[in-house]
Amino acid sequence: MRKFAINPKYQYLAEEILAIPERFEREGMLLYKGRNQVKMMEIGGLKLNVKSFKRPHVINRIVYAYFRKTKAERSFRYANLLQQYGIGTPEPVAYIVYRDWCGVSRSYYISLQVEYDYEFRDLKVKRPNDLEPMLVAFTRFTYQLHEHGIYFVDHSPGNTLIKRKAEGYDFYLVDLNRMKFMTITPELGLRNFYRLDASDDMIEIIAREYARLRGGDAGQMTEMLKNWTHEHNARVAERKRRKAKKKCMF
Known about the structure:
By secondary structure, this protein is an alpha+beta fold. It has 9 helices and 11 strands. It is globular.
């Protein structure tokens, strides 16, 4: 059984889009391989970004089949919502979900491939000359999310793409399947930045601008964000250490 939705703008490519799962294993340029796989594929003259989600474990196969929308469907829906609000994300093209007697087996989210200059994670290492105005613009972009009551749970270093333009920057959110919708207080909004693995000087720029936008105390918000970031990074380092130690035991 197959469930899908296609952006009406690309309905003329429906047949080719729906054939993507059959072609995915043998075609396309691999962009990422981990828990999920991401490939760039060309369809009808368009460069598409195709994300193939890992087969869910047995319980989630049933949950996604009957009780909760799959990650692919949520990504498609949230991308459309972001675009309605004028918030940058690669244009959604389609999602495709396959289900068998045991539940969801395969799922795909398809969007236009975006050309960009940086992922957010690059900024800490590459330190572009316009780092400060870029971070100020990024903070305003995130503030726009919060003003619409959107909390992007996976606001992490690899999930924002940055492209310079003649004046300013464009930002694109990716990996969209986890979002919360609620009233976002200044403190909760500030906390949305702690997973970005920003350096202390980057944190100071972000916290200062967010404090200005939310009418908060810049010094206090900077200290809070530094503490949250350092604590998160320490937890991540500890998990990696334990994982490496466990591998060495076998």
